[in-house]
């Protein structure tokens, strides 16, 4: 791997900050969609950090290939953010459930992660949230591309 692919760039910074902000904003949109009484704890913070990481790694590393690719990179970054957020939030719930002795063994607990993710997904099928994620992801890709062109 060339050394330039691992160095910090303006495109990586812009992608990380913009996708982190999108992760925070989307987390605020998720709150009213979940059942009443849901304890969110560090929900926004976790999703914002995941956005920072996905922006830096997924979108920022692919910036500089053109505007069409920037849109695809943004969508890829949002998809990575969604997958990681589902996984971590489901893992967190599984750990809480395992402390309540809901699972008979480790295999059942691992399956519980995916069951929890499916349960979460049913709550999050909302046109507003999906639109914000799609348009926001493409905007993150375009911003990273613009930063790549401007400061490279």
Structure description:
This protein is an all-alpha fold. It has one domain (7-150). The chain is 74% helix and 0% strand. It contains 5 helices and no strands. It has helices at 10-30, 43-59, 67-99, 106-123, 127-150. The two termini are 19 Å apart. The relative contact order is 0.20.
Structure summarized in a few sentences:
InterPro entries: TrgA. By secondary structure, this protein is mainly α. It is built from 5 helices and no strands.
Straight-line N-to-C gap: 19 Å
> Which structural category fits the helices and strands?
mainly alpha
Q: What is the approximate shape?
A: elongated
Task: Pick out the low-confidence regions.
Answer: none
E-strand count = 0
How confident is the prediction overall: mean pLDDT? 92
What is the beta-strand fraction? under 5%
Secondary-structure element string: HHHHH
Helical content (DSSP H or I, runs of 4+): over 70%
| Main beta sheet strand tally, sense and closure | none
Figure out the total of helices.
Answer: 5
Q: Indicate how many domains the architecture comprises.
A: 1
The radius of gyration computed from the alpha-carbon positions, rounded to a whole number of angstroms, is 17 Å
